[in-house]
Amino acid sequence: MIFAALLLAAALAPAAGTNAMVATEQHLATQTGVDILKVGGNAVDAAVAVGYALAVVDPCCGNIGGGGFMLIRMHDGRERFIDFREKAPERASRDMYLDARGNVDPEKSRKGWLAIGVPGTVMGLDRALREYGTMSRSRVMSSAIDLARNGYVVEPGDMIPFEGSPAEGYSGWAFGEKPHVGERIVQRDLGASLDSIARDGDGAFYRGAIARNIVDASQRNGGLLTMRDFADYTVDESQPVHCTYHDLDVVSAPPPSSGGVTLCEILNIISPYPLAQWGWHSPRETHYVVEAERRAYADRNAYLGDPAFVHDPIAQLLDPRYAASLRKSIAPVDPTPSKQVKPGLHITVHENDDTTHYSIVDKDGNAVAVTYTINDWFGSGVVAPHTGFFLNDEMDDFTSKPGVPNMFGLVQGERNDIQPGKRPLSSMTPTMVLRDGKLAMVTGSPGGSRIITIALETILNVFDFGMNVQQAVDAPRMHMQWLPDQIQYEPNAFTATTMNALRTDGYAFSEVPFWGSAQAIVIDPKTGMRYGGTDRRHPAGAAIGY
Ligand code: GLY
């Protein structure tokens, strides 16, 4: 018994580092980041190196065929949000996924050449390196190129993306047969693509042979992509969203991510509640957190979209008076049926994703949180000849038709409709937490629409419930997103007593085996020690400090 308890305690101990920490969902990518830091690179150099390494060793999720967000906080307090989310091709149109009867054809937005948004990862990583890094492109990409050219050996944890997922039995897998444990995967085409990017920068991807190969394949297969789509692609930079939660300053992703705004709206609603006193996942704590999530997701789905195309009412959504009005609408015990919860502003207006997150803090206190994605498992499932990487199906994150759920069950509105050059609304939530102006936590996760509540729970687990960062990322999760009107939960997220109490109050539940892969770092304010937590749901991952 004592031995079992010791084993459990050991399993839940976070990685520790006096200088720096890297947490990703693939150990070779983590090591790539640590190696860059050890030879004097900063957190941004390491983040770019990890981004390319994950594209090789975590090919379900790491990518150069998708897009994402990088949240940077330099040790001097400078903050930057780099938006390299995919854009809809110029020939995309609002109703492109509707059939002749006006019904959504989900296959079209999820698989094949019509599902692809113009990828942003290469330009995003290049921008970050140029503006905030210290090393050359070829230096930070050398490990990824080596892993692609000379291969890496598949370990049991690497098989997770292939088991029980739509990728199982999928014949379009870039390497032919599904890989097996012990096999060395060599990716020559991907190595050549990375080599040309290392040499020629984003020009190789957006104006050179890579774009040409993708566009040719797209045109042969009924897709929309053109060379102009690639040449016109741009990365945006902005300031992150901020909110206050107790004595913490939460820094997170602004639109076109819904992540930071929704996370902050939930935190604003729950901030007066004594969650720690009520207890982790107790009936009362669950009720109030779930009701806050229900209301924030209703707003998310109605009000948010690409800021280049719509006005996002961020100030109104994050106004403390608005949070107070939403709190008033929460009954002490009974759930509010989602059909009674309408987006609240008075203005007119599955774990089954292929996203990954990583967190890095360097010796100087520079921090980077990156979440990037090709959306569904193995994205659109297509690989252009000679390129070696999967292309995204990010177009499914748009509203194909108002009121019709996307693959994450999100029932979204007009503001997220498809328009040429527009970025689809995302839930990716790379986030940092500051206390007394100092970096206290870096966190984020994949998980589709559940990404936001994963970020929320990792923060609450650390700062309200006193868990260490490894416990915080491992703890079983719950989630509510307005529609469907049910609490989604992982096994062991609730005791039987709690579930019975909440069922009696009127809550419906839906069990999901597991979701997310949070990669988080917590900094001890007294010692400066960096603690890393890597999600045990993805055993290939590693948090490594030094
Ligand atoms: N592709 C999932 C998201 O960006 O929310």
Strand content: 15-25%
Radius of gyration: 22 Å
Q: Sheet bearing the most strands, described?
A: 7 strands, antiparallel
In this entry the ligands are: glycine
How would you write the strand order of the largest sheet?
A: 1-18-17-13-12-9-8
Alpha-carbon distance between the termini?
A: 33 Å
Residue share in helix: 25-40%
* Unreliable segments of 5+ consecutive residues: 1-9, 165-173
Give the quaternary arrangement of the chains: single chain
Overall spatial form:
globular
Secondary structure class reads: alpha+beta
Secondary-structure blueprint:
Blueprint: H1 2-11, E1 15-17, E2 21-24, H2 27-38, H3 43-57, E3 67-73, E4 79-84, H4 106-110, H5 121-132, H6 137-150, E5 152-153, E6 184-185, H7 188-200, H8 202-206, H9 209-220, H10 227-232, E7 236-238, E8 241-245, E9 248-252, H11 259-270, H12 275-278, H13 283-303, H14 314-317, H15 320-328, E10 355-361, E11 367-373, E12 431-435, E13 438-443, H16 451-463, H17 469-474, E14 478-479, E15 487-489, H18 496-505, E16 509-511, E17 519-523, E18 530-534, E19 542-545
Parallel strand pairs: 15-16
Antiparallel strand pairs: 1-18, 2-10, 2-19, 3-4, 3-11, 4-7, 5-6, 8-9, 9-12, 10-11, 12-13, 13-17, 14-15, 17-18
Helix pairs in contact: 2-3, 3-5, 3-6, 6-7, 11-13, 11-15, 11-16
Bound molecules: glycine.
Glycine binds near residues 373 and 394.
